[in-house]
Every structure is written in structure tokens, then in C-alpha cells.
Amino acid sequence: MKVEATSINPIDWKIQNGVLRPFLPRKFPFIPLSDVAGEVVEVGPGVKNYKAGDKIVSTLGVAGGGLAEYAVAKESLTVPRPREVSAADGACLGVAACAALHSLTVTGGLKLEKTEPRTNVLVTAASGGVGHYAVQLAKLGNTHVTATCGARNIDFVKSLGADEVLDYKTPEGAALKSPSGQKYDIVVNCTTGIPWSTFEPNLSPTGKVIDITPGGGTFWNYALQKLTFSKKLVIPLLVVPNAQEIGCLVKLVKEGKLKTVIDSRYPLSQAEAAWAKSIEGHATGKVVVEP
Q1: DSSP-derived 3-state class of residue 19
Q2: Which residues lie closer than 8 Å to 70 by C-beta, 6 or more apart?
Q3: Residue 246 CA to chain centroid, in angstroms?
Q4: Which one-letter DSSP state was computed for residue 206?
Q5: Backbone angles phi, psi at 245, to 5 degrees
Q6: Is 55 helix (H, G, I), strand (E, B) or coil?
Q7: Number of C-alpha atoms within 13 angstroms, CB side, residue 56?
Q8: 273 by DSSP, 3-state: which?
Q9: Any idea what the Cα angle at residue 259 is, between residues 149 and 52, rounded to 5°?
């Protein structure tokens, strides 16, 4: 495929930093990035659903290869891209939007329907790549959404649909306390450094904290909670994007129910600057590279 857009996720530069050694990278030279959108230029003999000229959205998985003019995508991890969805929008959906969708609907059990009983949701770091999708997706259901972010992004997160927004640097924000006194049924935790002792008193009796960047403490607490039959849980999210979820997300973008917010765009010749922007950790939405 000819790559028209690709996006950077934190896991990409964490792989560069060696977080998955010795498993990844499998070999060098290694071309990073997995979320892409573009146009089919050639198909293999076993491909049945696509032909040259088709516009597509795909995730390349752990093999990477997206930071290039051309990439090889698997048919099983590819979906058609309608005209209403730009290449940049489509290229942001793989890891980030799938993590948000999976956290809420699969791990959290939320149904994206207004007819369901109300669910109280907290999204931390709600102005980031996963967070800004999580707020929008949660609001498709019958939810009350509390969100945290930096002071400069409060209005932005409100515009995504959040019912109440906390500045994470204030005492109330650091404590994750809902201004209206809500207890959270689902927490999509998109940041690091918040201990279980901060989450626990803010949860409903069966509340779940879904940690999208789990560390050792998350796995330890999860194991301990399972052993003690705790109804309040912290759950490490280990999700691999798939075509079914990407297709669902593309459909939502097409219908105007979900939007991708792009912090910045870079040409392939400035990929190093895009990389640095993502590592900086203060992007509002997604960082996109357009070959």
C-alpha cells in the first residue's frame, strides 16, 4: 500500500527505548509505526476483498513499517476507508481508538446505547490520544463522564462531551474526586503514577480501573484482588487492534459520531520532530506523519 498517513503511539517510542526487548524489535533495521491509511497499489495472490486503487485503513501490528512511503498490510487487519474519512483520521484509529473502545465495551462492559442504565465513567489524561477517544465513545452510551487533563485543555475536553473536567494539578484533580460526588463504575486510566489508594475510594462497589499502560504494580494489585475476591478491580489492558473494532470506529467517524483530533502534522522528512513531539507527552490528540 502507498501510505498516505500514519500516526505515532507511545508504544512506538517505548519499543525504541527497549521496553519490549528481547522480543521486539525482531530484527534491524526496524521501521516503526503500525497505524496507517492509504491506497492499495498491489495485492498478493490470496487477497480477495481489495484491489489496486482501494482506499484502506490498516494496522501493521508488531511488525511495524508505517513510517515509510510504502508498507505491507495484512488483509485480515485492513478495512475499507470511505470518502467521508480522511487518511489522517483513519490512520489514528488503530492503537489509540481501539484501546479506548476495548476498555469501555469489552473490559468495562459498557454498551454504547442511550437506553442502558446510567454508568459513571472517569477518563484520566482525557486530552491525549486514547483519552480523547474514550470521552467521545463513553458519551455514546448513557453515561456521566468525569475527565482529568491539564488546565489549558479543560475547554477542549468539555467540547468532547465530558460532563465535568478536573485539572489534574489541583488537589481535587489529584484526588480524582467528582465535583458532583459520582462514584465511578469504569475508569479508563490513560496516565501513570496514580496509586490504587487514590482510585479505590472513588469507585462504586463494583468499579473497575482499566489501566492502558500497566506497570508491575497494576499486575500485582490485579492478582491480589483476584485472590481476595475483591469486587473493585484494577485491570491491566493488553489489547491488539483488530479489523472488527477498526471497522466499527471507521463507521462511527463516517457517521460523525466520533472525531479524531490531530495535534500536529509532519511530512515524512520531519519524522524526527514528530517523534520528539510524541515523546514530549503533551500532545492534544494525535501526532500524524504524512509521507
Answers
A1: coil
A2: 1, 2, 3, 41
A3: 11
A4: E
A5: -70, -40
A6: strand
A7: 29
A8: helix
A9: 135
SS3 category, 38: strand
The answer to whether the CB of 178 falls within 8 A of the CB of 197 is no
Burial of residue 217 (CB within 10 Å: 0-12, 13-18, 19+) is middle
Phi, psi of 40 (to 5 degrees): -70, 130
Taking the C-alpha atoms of residue 189 and residue 186, their distance in angstroms, rounded to an integer, is 9
Instruction: Tell me if 129 sits within 8 A of 286, measured CB to CB.
Output: yes
C-alpha distances in angstroms, 74 versus 2, 17, 36, 238?
A: 14, 27, 12, 21
Helices (H), 34-163: 87-91, 98-101, 129-138, 154-159
Cell representation of residue 15 = 519499543
163-168 own/partner pairs: CB under 8 Å, 24+ apart? 165/126, 168/124, 168/125
Angle at 135 between CA 165 and CA 172, to 5 degrees: 25
Q: How far apart are CA 202 and CA 120, in angstroms?
A: 11
Q: Is the dihedral of CA 197, 198, 204, 208 positive or negative?
A: negative
- 257: which 3 cell numbers? 459520531
Determine how many CB atoms are found less than 10 A away from the CB of residue 218: 20
User: Which residue in this structure is represented by grid cell 519524522?
Assistant: 271
Residue pair 63/235 in contact by the 8 Å Cβ criterion? no
Share of the chain above pLDDT 70, in %: 97
* Each residue's pLDDT tens digit, 141-182: 999 999 999 999 999 999 999 999 999 999 999 999 999 999
Task: Name the β-bridge partners of 267.
Answer: 290
pLDDT of residue 269: 96
Express each pLDDT in 104-152 by its tens digit.
Answer: 999 999 999 888 889 999 999 999 999 999 999 999 999 999 999 999 9
